[in-house]
């Protein structure tokens, strides 16, 4: 009886007015990406790193067709989705399903009920999640007005990750055999390594986020790195943390977000600093050998204020992102306030890490 009642209850929730079906196709394949002067064969969804964001409204049904064109057995796990009555869509190989073999397809169908906030999806084949991942954003069914915090003007996914130049399934196998001496080659924000990484003196492009003065931004932060906790900071700005792992929390203000692998944190940032350019930095607490206590692999991008935002087109933003922060600095000239801000946050982050180890 109780089970029947539960089925009726959850079915009613899933089929309530306004619910719709969100349908995507994920084509898993290998592509060549070049960073740090090296071509690396990377397994990704739809040719993107990070993969496509899946955006739903609470109560929606999700259908994702996975087409596996990679040489690996794959499953996709919907990290944090409670999967009421949908356990066979949870994407755990040899538990809820057989892996999707190369050149085979599988369709995931599940309802997103009773949850809202930021989650993510990733491959549940160990270590391929480093490149097979993306955001899963669940918005309230009554719209942004029902957020238990001031309605943001803009929502921005911030996916922190690793850049690996090793064969990840091989690394996984080696670790199972007891060898742990493997390290990523860098860290990323939304797939960009940033200008602290360079190859033969040519800096990597960095993530660029435009701020309009006075506006409030909801950053949906995801740590998609394999092993390391990260510390995220924007020079000259504070975060108001409002949610973690798709649970609202009592809001608190901080100038640094600590986020563990697999975790998500939603935080509001108000563009209330003096208009200019400010570094956004993610520092992993696990450093590569031989000295694993010295923080390295910091990835940094740029928050830049746009006083006249209407003149900025998406095309210009994309071009700016591709060319990288460093190139733009070369175009515009050095920015004294940026250097000053970075000096400040370096000291703060290193101090914070030192207290943890
Ligand atoms: Cu997960």
UniProtKB/TrEMBL annotation:
GO BP term, pick one: lignin catabolic process
Top-level taxon of origin: Eukaryota
GO cellular component entries: apoplast
Short name of one Pfam family: Cu-oxidase
Single Gene Ontology MF annotation: hydroquinone:oxygen oxidoreductase activity
Residue ranges of domain Plastocyanin-like in the record: 28-141, 155-285
Species this protein is from: Setaria viridis (Green bristlegrass)
Known catalytic reactions: 4 hydroquinone + O2 = 4 benzosemiquinone + 2 H2O
Name under which the protein is recorded: laccase
Signal peptide (residue range): 1-19
EC number: 1.10.3.2
SUPFAM superfamilies the UniProt entry points to: Cupredoxins (SSF49503)
Entry keyword Transmembrane: no
Keywords: Apoplast, Copper, Lignin degradation, Oxidoreductase, Repeat, Secreted, Signal
Chain's role: Lignin degradation and detoxification of lignin-derived products.
């Amino acid at each position: 009886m109780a089970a029947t009642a539960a089925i009726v209850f959850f079915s009613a929730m899933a089929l309530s007015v306004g619910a719709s079906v969100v349908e995507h196709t994920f084509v898993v394949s290998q592509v060549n990406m070049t960073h740090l002067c090296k071509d690396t064969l990377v397994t990704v969804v739809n040719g993107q790193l990070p993969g496509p964001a899946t955006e739903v409204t609470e109560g929606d049904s999700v259908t994702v067709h996975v087409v596996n064109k990679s040489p690996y057995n794959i499953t996709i796990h919907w990290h944090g989705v409670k999967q009421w009555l949908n356990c066979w869509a949870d994407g755990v190989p040899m538990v809820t399903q057989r892996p999707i073999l190369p050149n085979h397809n599988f369709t995931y169908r599940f309802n997103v009920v009773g949850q809202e906030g930021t989650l993510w999806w990733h491959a549940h084949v160990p270590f391929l999640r480093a490149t097979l991942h993306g955001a899963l954003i669940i918005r309230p069914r009554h719209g942004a007005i029902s957020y238990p915090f001031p309605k943001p003007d803009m929502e921005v996914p911030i996916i922190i990750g690793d850049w690996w130049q090793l064969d990840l399934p091989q690394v996984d196998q080696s670790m199972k055999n007891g060898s742990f001496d493997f390290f990523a080659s860098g860290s990323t924000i939304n797939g960009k390594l940033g200008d602290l990484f360079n190859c033969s003196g040519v800096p990597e492009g960095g993530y660029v986020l435009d701020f309009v003065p006075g506006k409030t931004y909801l950053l949906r932060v995801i740590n998609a790195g394999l092993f390391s906790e990260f510390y995220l900071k924007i020079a000259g700005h504070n975060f108001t943390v409002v949610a973690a792992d798709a649970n609202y929390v009592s809001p608190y203000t901080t100038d640094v977000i600590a986020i563990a692998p697999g975790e998500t944190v939603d935080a509001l940032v108000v563009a209330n600093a003096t208009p200019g350019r400010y570094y956004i930095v993610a520092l992993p607490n696990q450093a590569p050998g031989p000295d694993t206590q010295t923080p390295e692999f910091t990835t940094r991008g740029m928050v830049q204020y746009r006083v006249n935002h209407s003149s900025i087109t998406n095309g210009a933003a994309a071009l700016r992102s591709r060319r990288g922060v460093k190139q733009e600095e070369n175009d515009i000239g050095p920015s004294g306030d940026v250097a000053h801000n970075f000096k400040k946050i370096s000291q703060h982050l290193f101090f914070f890490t030192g207290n943890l180890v």
